[in-house]
Amino acid sequence: MPNTLEASIDIAAAPEQVWSVVSDLKRIPEFSPQTLRMQPLGRSVHTGTWTVNLNKASGYVYPTTSKVVRYEPNKAIAFRMTENRTVWSYTLEPTEGGTKLIQRRDVPNGKLPGWLQFTIDKVFGGEQPFEGALVDGMHETLGKIKQTVER
């Protein structure tokens, strides 16, 4: 399993405009085909904020939790999934024409928990189709964010 999956897109808007969308974690389901709900706990999102999530993959719906592990306004937000320890992030880089938005999924130590690897192999058809669906979902997510911000 690769340590990192990544997708990026150029958006014709200032980082502050892009940040206003990606830092509003409640809005992630508008963009992500795999996220049905993401509910931050507390009044504001910052490093240390917990979220309760509802996700879907291959017809399965399942709950998760995550914790914001990086929060740098107008630059980056990242959250670690409790169940599988993966870290999902959005990084914003200013460009001449606006902002490059990068979405990543990192697997610390390059290894998922055994139960999840078993599930990927037996339920989701193996690593390649599972990760291919994740990357496709990342591209879809970024495309929808771009449309929303540029509107």
Could you please describe the fold and organization of this structure?
- The chain has a seven-stranded antiparallel sheet.
- The chain has one domain: START domain (Alpha-D-Glucose-1,6-Bisphosphate, Chain A, domain 4, 2-Layer Sandwich), CATH 3.30.530.20.
- With 151 residues, it is an alpha+beta fold.
- The termini are far apart.
| Cα radius of gyration in angstroms | 15 Å
Total strands: the figure is 7
Query: Judging from the principal axes of the Cα atoms, what is the shape?
Result: globular
Sheet having the most strands: 7 strands, antiparallel
Name the quaternary structure. Answer: single chain
Strand order of the largest sheet: 1-7-6-5-4-3-2
CATH topology: Alpha-D-Glucose-1,6-Bisphosphate, Chain A, domain 4
CATH architecture tag? 2-Layer Sandwich
On the 0 to 100 scale, the average pLDDT is 92
CATH homologous superfamily assignment: START domain
Q: Note the run of SSEs as H and E.
A: EHHEEEEEEHH
**Estimated structural class:** alpha+beta
Runs in which pLDDT lies below 50 for 5 or more consecutive residues are none
Strand content: 35-45%
How many structural domains are formed by the residues?
A: 1
Number of helices: 4
End-to-end C-alpha gap: 37 Å
The CATH C-level class name: Alpha Beta
**Relative helix content:** 25-40%
